[in-house]
Design a protein that fits this description.
By secondary structure, the chain is α/β, with parallel strands linked by helices. The protein is built from 8 helices and 41 strands. Helix 5 crosses helix 6. The structure holds uridine-diphosphate-N-acetylglucosamine (UD1) and calcium ion.
Length: 471
Amino acid sequence: MVQESKIAVVILAAGEGTRMKSNTAKVLFPICGRPMVDYILDAASDVKPGKIVVVIGHKGEEVANRIIDGWARDNDMGGNIEFAWQLQRRGTGHAVSCAQDQIPGDCEHVMVLCGDTPLITGEMLNRFVQAHLSNRAELSLVTALLDDPGDYGRIRRDENGNIVGIVEANDLLPEDNHIKEINAGIYIAGKETLARLLSRLNDNNAKQEFYLTDIVKKGVEAGCTVASMMCQDVSIVQGVNDRYALALAELRLRGTVLRDLCLSGVTIRDPRNTYIDSGVTIGADTIIEPGTFLRGKTSIGQGCIIGPNSEIIDSWVGDNSRIWSSVVEESKVGENVRIGPFSHIRPDSVIEADASIGNFAEVKNSIIGQGSKVHHHSYLGDSSIGCGVNIGAGTVTVNYDGLKKHRTVIEDNAFIGCNANLIAPVTIGKDAYVAAGSTITGDIPGGALGIARERQVNKEGWVAKRKEKTD
Ligand code: UD1
Ligand code: CA
């Protein structure tokens, strides 16, 4: 085993990602809700490196900030990660040179990874490190076999099967066309060896770039021991250069997320039509119906039924709740709650245990107390609703006067009749009633009935009289 501080990892993330045709830096494209580069950082940290240096350039500040505020903070790795600027993009070899000064003196080996291979695993990288050490190699690389090697660099070998170099897709010669073994873009080398080989690179190639891949040929020429490890599962070394590859990478990662959830006791009725971000947690015996999206930092309890056709973002849902054709954002939903169909819980809401919301209800920045019912076309915004409250159909908290938002307070066991407008700020006391159709502009004391509407007048014989007049 390599000692923890003996290995440094360099992650190349400075490229422009031209083939993505985007304003977003390629390594920040989300896959199952997380930036692509996070997956490489996850795998890299599994080899317990003494230092991770991320080479940044195109949109470098954005990339660095995202890593510092995201992955590094979540993994408590702030001190272990550094950024190296590659101010001009002159190729992958040049990118590694830019990181060299930041590799700590006590690191003997340097592993180089690309920021656009999100499917690599720590398990594979650890196997690779072990292979490199047991081969006593000075330079090792990962390869894989592909029927259609496309954009990948090809591995050239001599008649004895020894690696002699890598040829990039743009520089292929006719005799390279049969090659099916590709370069995965994953390397490990002794620190001194790497420095020596990098200093020998040139840009005499189709792209006029300093290709990192040329260190292999330079290494062979210098008599270094060059070894390779073939990765049997070619899909894990897939590079993401364009959005089709991105879609395929996401499909695969999503499959892994869903499989892990299923194995932990979650029923996912249709994995082809269920979208769950990496990191979402779900308790056993919960059923996820099709058309459901669970995003960000979402946690779902046990025994819930979520979906069909629901989206839950950055929210917490307690055990045995049912969310049906609805959207929940940045909110907390207690146990045994019913939401939907067709309801929207907007940010900063708390729906306490046993409450029920919907059909067609919207709640925003509100607390709905235990066992309260908010049904049929209601809007509750900026409100505190006690326990056991009944909100009649079409109730609206009138929370906005055009300038400011105001709060509505409804105390325990109050009963709001249908189609009431509650003009905030206003408080409806405990056990109070609001008569249907009221527009309530003042507080109602506990136990009182608030009624605020015109009295009905019946005009006897009105229809017949009108008829006489018009005849
Ligand atoms: C590279 C390899 C290719 C290999 C493939 C594996 C080279 C020359 N080619 O090709 O042999 O099969 O990866 O996926 O290395 N980058 C920089 N600075 C630069 C250029 C690139 O940081 O100046 C970064 C990119 O952001 C990217 C990584 O290096 O994360 C790889 O670059 P990319 O342009 O995607 O290389 P490929 O054409 O995929
Ligand atoms: Ca690539």
